[in-house]
């Protein structure tokens, strides 16, 4: 079965504009900045939450469209913001490892209250066939012992243990490793989250769930086939453009 990464739409027609989010109204009841507050929802990195976190409202520009998937980023960059309709569909296909926190989407004088931040805390790295993935290692090379040159190379990994050993090495040297192109194996979930993919964290759906979401008319979503890198997917004249049209 095919699988797809959920992406927020690149189409300005579907977004309504290129900027989309006007302001995040963060609800922290003190003078801390959001990155200093461990109970802020954006500070919690895919761990189960057993308390009431500090949330936020998201204000869109007046000409932005209110889609079922709202662009993430900024203070909540690892989370999805979804409509109640999309939430209900996802809940039919996944029963564990998820929490939803209700927030408001604001636009002009309107308040859209049936929106949710998804906190997903169960990763399924075991679905990755590391031996068949394209993995990029971005290493530093000393340049006159003052600055560094960045060198990207493809590395070959046999299994998950080798991959995490390389992750440990990269962290020590302040280098970066990520999975550029995915190969999946023995997937038994229709909706799941993976880390160390292009962009850091990615949310993925099966062909079955993709069809359900499309049939429901959910907006703001583009489905990137996992076998394509992001650059391949977004290349001018490439598959994304054939499916969803040009950006503008």
Automatic annotation (TrEMBL):
- The segment(s) forming the Immunity MXAN-0049 protein domain are 39-162
Protein name (Swiss-Prot/TrEMBL): Immunity MXAN-0049 protein domain-containing protein
Q: Which organism is it from?
A: Flavobacterium azooxidireducens
């Amino acid at each position: 079965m095919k699988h797809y990464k959920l992406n927020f739409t690149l189409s300005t027609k579907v977004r309504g504009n290129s900027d989309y989010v006007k302001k995040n109204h963060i609800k922290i009841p003190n003078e801390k900045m959001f990155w200093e507050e461990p109970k802020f929802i954006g500070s919690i990195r895919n761990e189960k939450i057993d308390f009431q976190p500090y949330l936020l409202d998201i204000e869109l520009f007046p000409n932005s469209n209110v889609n079922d998937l709202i662009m993430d980023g900024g203070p909540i960059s690892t989370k999805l913001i979804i409509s109640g309709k999309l939430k209900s569909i996802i809940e039919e296909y996944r029963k564990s490892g998820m929490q939803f926190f209700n927030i408001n989407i604001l636009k002009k004088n309107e308040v859209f209250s049936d929106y949710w931040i998804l906190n997903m805390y169960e990763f399924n790295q075991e679905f990755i066939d590391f031996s068949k993935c394209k993995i990029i290692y971005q290493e530093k090379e000393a340049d006159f012992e003052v600055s560094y040159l960045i060198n990207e190379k493809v590395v070959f990994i046999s299994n998950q243990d080798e991959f995490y050993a390389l992750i440990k090495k990269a962290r020590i040297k302040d280098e970066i490793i990520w999975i550029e192109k995915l190969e999946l194996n023995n997937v038994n979930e229709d909706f799941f989250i993976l880390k160390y993919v292009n962009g850091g964290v990615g949310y993925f759906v099966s062909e079955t769930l993709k069809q359900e979401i499309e049939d429901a008319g959910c907006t703001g979503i583009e489905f990137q086939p996992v076998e394509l890198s992001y650059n391949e997917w977004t290349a001018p004249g490439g598959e994304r453009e054939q499916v969803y049209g040009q950006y503008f």
